[in-house]
Amino acid sequence: MVEKQGNDQQIIDQWQVRHILISPSVTMTNELAKQQIESLYEQLRQGADFATLAATYSKDPGSANNGGSLDWVGEDEMVPQFEQVMKNTEVNDFSTPFETQYGWHILKVEGKRQHDVTDIYRRNKAREALYQRLAPQALEDWLQELRAQAYVNIMPEAQTTS
What is the pTM of this model? Predict the structure, then answer.
């Protein structure tokens, strides 16, 4: 493992993001969802608190209770439309409304950083190397165990009496 470890640092860009999601549903058409997100956008432009609006209106069950916080998000963790808007929004600013397959969003970027994930990367590489080495043997052991436990009882043909 030491040879494969390498000395390369793995640094990734991350954004600290909040969002408001308004999803179309049985009771809300896509057009109504768009109207609601545009209304929330206007409230933000007039100085409303992003976290309060997210907690009140967002339909994202994972982040609404935390004021829309998604915590730190790296590349390739979100759908492409969300990621593109996130990358193009300045720190301490919020986006215009945009649509993804989940519905209509407004996001706010609260911070940006470069984060060292070298330890996580190395752990994942070591886990992958161990899996590649041990999985075939574990599969073979399991198959042998199944074969050893298999019991087949061949019944003689039933004799018919006439």
Answer: 0.68
